[in-house]
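Much of what follows relies on a compact textual record of a protein's fold. Each token is a code from a learned vocabulary of local backbone shapes. The record below shows the convention in full.
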Amino acid sequence: MIDNRLAPYGALTLRVALGLMFIAHAYLKLVIFTPAGFAGFLGQVGLPSFLAWPIMLAELLGGLAILTGFYGRYVSILLLPVLLGALMVHAPNGWVFNAPNGGGEYPAFLALTALAHAMIGDGALALKPARLPVLGTPAAA
């Protein structure tokens, strides 16, 4: 059963946590690892190094959009490839994220959190909440 009085605030809590996580990871890549260092890491794991800036910008701008509730549901869906890519990189290292080179636990959790956000909605205090079409109904003309 869903408590309709508190559900919008639960969705808000989920949205704020997810948005802040994306912003924190963008900051980590920009300031601590540096763009050149992150590009080098991508090259070491077999991904094109030119993806460094698009990933960092997607995390930063996407995190801000999710945090503020500016079409956050759509942004969570659009960021799933970034999270699934991180999962593919870290999963071979084991499950727990404190394993050497990080395991798949955290990226898997974040991917499922983004999916939950997309399904639940933006919740309370969203600047521009996104509405997904209802499955099985014709699209509006």
